[in-house]
Amino acid sequence: MTGRDEAADLAAALGEPRWTAPRVRPLDRRLAVDKDSVERGLASLVLTVIELLRQLMERQALRRVDLGDLTEEQVERVGATLMALEEQMTQLREYFGLAPEDLNLDLGPLGPLLPTD
After folding, report:
1. Neighbour-count burial for 79-111, b at 16+ CB within 10 Å, e otherwise
2. DSSP class of residue 20?
3. Which of 32, 44, 60, 83 has most Cβ atoms within 10 angstroms of its Cβ?
4. Is the pLDDT of residue 10 over 80?
5. What is the C-alpha radius of gyration for the chain, rounded to an integer number of angstroms?
């Protein structure tokens, strides 16, 4: 029995008149595949991952500061580094025309990827 026969059997069991294979259209009709949308989509994905990592690093640094694990010099360096990274992220978002909320993926029942605090 082939996959198509199984699909026809299932369609008949569900009371559907007859199974037909889905019509396949060329990719360019189904998706907007222009250079600008691809570039913006890729930039959005990469910046989302970077923003997630930036926020995780920031939380880890704050936790270590609260625990007293860092010297004053380390606290200053971490603070300066995180501020510079946040500034660079802002510039990259502006360059690609993205708002901060554009980087937050909706994970359905799990909620947003990035915290909104």
Report:
1. eeebeebeeebeeebeebebeeeebbeeeeeee
2. -
3. 44
4. no
5. 24
Indicate the residue type of 23: R
The pair of structure tokens assigned to 70 is 């860092």
> What are the CA-CA distances from residue 30 to residues 10, 20, 21, 24, 35 (Å)?
27, 20, 17, 9, 16
Q: For residues 37 and 45, give the distance between their C-alpha atoms in angstroms, rounded to a whole number.
A: 12
CB contact set of 62 (below 8 Å; sequence gap of 6+): none
Tokens of 31: 């998706």
- pTM here? 0.61
